[in-house]
User: What shape does this take?
Amino acid sequence: MPRMSGAKALIESLKREKAEVIFGIPGGAILPVYDVLYDSDIKHILMRHEQCAAHAADGYARASGKVGVCMSTSGPGATNLVTGIANAYMDSSPIVAITGQVPRPFIGKDAFQETDIVGITTPITKCNFQVRSTAEIPKIVKTAFYIASTGRPGPVLIDLPKDTQTEEDEMNFDERIEFRGYRPTYDPHPLQVEKAVQLLIQAERPIIVAGGGVKASNACSDLVALAETLLAPVATTLMGKGVIPEDHPLSVGMLGMHGTVAANHLVQDADVLLAVGMRFSDRSTGNIKAFCPDGKIIHIDIDSSEIGKNIKSHVPIVADAKRALQSIRNRLIQKFNKKERSTWLNRMQTLKNIHEEMIKSVGDGIKPPALMVEVRKMLPNDAIVTTEVGQNQMWAALYLKAYKPRTFISSGGLGTMGFGFPAALGAKVACPEVPVVDIAGDGSFLMTEQDLASSIAWKIPVIVVILNNSVLGMVAQWQRLFYNRRYSAVDLKRIPDFVKLAESYGAQGSRVQSIEEFRGAFKEAINSDVSTVIDVPISPEENVMPMVPPGNTLKDLILS
Amino acid sequence: MEMKERIYMISAIVEHKPGVLYSVSNMFRRRGFNIESISVGESEQSDLARMTITMKGDEATVEQVVKQLKKLISVIKVSILDSENTVARELALIKVNTPDARVRSDVINYTEIFKGHIVDVAHESLIIEITGDTDKINAFIELMKPFGVREIARTGIAALQRGMRSVKME
Ligand SMILES: Cc1ncc(C[n+]2csc(CCOP(=O)(O)OP(=O)(O)O)c2C)c(N)n1
Ligand SMILES: [Mg+2]
Assistant: This one.
């Protein structure tokens, strides 16, 4: 067994896990690791805020399907990662976060920059480790990557006391890892599959609701195949956007609070609802007591704790989405060959047409839905779109179609303003060949814009399209609709000049007043080798529609 | 559909290492589950600990608790114990005032009836050790209250299934 320092063992272990890049910021308690990184071939991208390092690792993971790695020092470095870790946890994104820690003898003494990051992140990680003896580093890294990327993916944190980084020991990189308390169930139970098939055969108004789990298990083609066999419309959650090409005749877009008319109505009217890799979040279901009132629910998830957590299903199936969808379809085609389902599908088409009409809104200035359509038109199908949080996010989710999995990246569960831009940087690092666009709000972009600096320094060109309404638009929308237009603390008044801001970093900036101008600027941005910020002024009075007011059922949509 | 609340006992085999109790109790807190008692100690395998958790709730809640426990990586095996086929015991230490000989002999008598033991004798007080199910211990404490109970320490319930049934690592 080779003898080496803990820091060397860490980097060697990361290489063995095929980590190509680390997003991070150094500091006192992680110096020995950075010293090894100095002549390692693992790329380290110096970010300007640890939150961005975590979001970039997350964006990298979501775009590539590989584990993203971020790193920070102890104390404030570690706590700055926390939002990013929580975000990855809520959206089941596989990242490994590595934090420096004060040396073992100082732990518990409130030493300089000591923080109980293991305690802090216990509820927001799939699991976490503090290294107690140097020799266990290879095993911990292996375990961390395995746990982050298997089953329901999620973040794992490794806390490394500084003295374990410097201490030398014999390192065993080939040690087998065993888990007594972690064995994801991949294969569906045949009896449950049979029950699901029975329900689906009898269904007259079937619908599939697909979430991020479908993407995580690479089950997108299986999903589409099943939908086509069944002749069932497919709605997705925000996380599921892209698991079926949104120009597919059976795709009805996103369901939920800002769902499409078609998705929401069809879900409510269905007699059998097949939910796969989704967790019935309140944003997806509206009033859950009245969700899909006459339907029988089949719920497939690899995380058994999701079964029965928010809703009681008639046929629960704990399994990997791909295997479950394949098993169901294999059984189904033996018994079932429906060639048409005209009433239900005609209904779908009528409802889908309403959505298309909503894009053609009239009035002065640039209308966000039309802008989203324009962005889509100009991008190749494999381009990646990230979003910030707020109205910008919902406009993108509703009107910017995704054609491929992993091309639409958004902070769903946590709803983290400031996620989209650093996530775009991470996605671009993972997929340098495709254009990456962050659909942003002015408020959100101001939370992480400092990483324009790293985008320039590391030559990671992305495009930021700011829907600039000078307000915290989504909050303003709620105040307009539910608080009698009492606009409390939403006016951003003195936002910077985003063009100059971009230019001051060495990025490109432009401001557009019409769709024609946007076309020109966007085209230039796609071809640019530095990041571009396009400032698109829009009215602060715009509402994202459709919307289901809180507490209502999915059918109680307001359209304007 | 209102579901009936009752007391459930859950037995969990967990890794015997630092932080495990924290992650379990933290999960209960964060998800708003109420535990009545939790007891932890080494199990038949020295690297594993057994946790016995009692909680009040309806069936759906308890099922969620079991699933959330299983989801924790350091938790290896979890089962709901059915009360009919389970031996459940708790130990309590109770310090009672015994100002005079009459009280003292009353307390000693009751202790004998409940098959407890006097484990410490001082001039003005006794410590009684008593084991049994929760009802028995509650009943005994009620009986002691008129004499003046100074301190109580209870372990929480430890439980095992009867006969060949078991919650253990294969
Ligand atoms: C970090 C964070 N803080 C606060 C919120 C609450 N919030 C949700 S949307 C929103 C407004 C977002 O404003 P902006 O980025 O300008 O987007 P817009 O809605 O105007 O498109 C706020 C403050 C949040 N989601 N995240
Ligand atoms: Mg705004």
Residues A 441-443, 469, 471-473 surround magnesium ion (ligand 2) (CB under 6 Å).
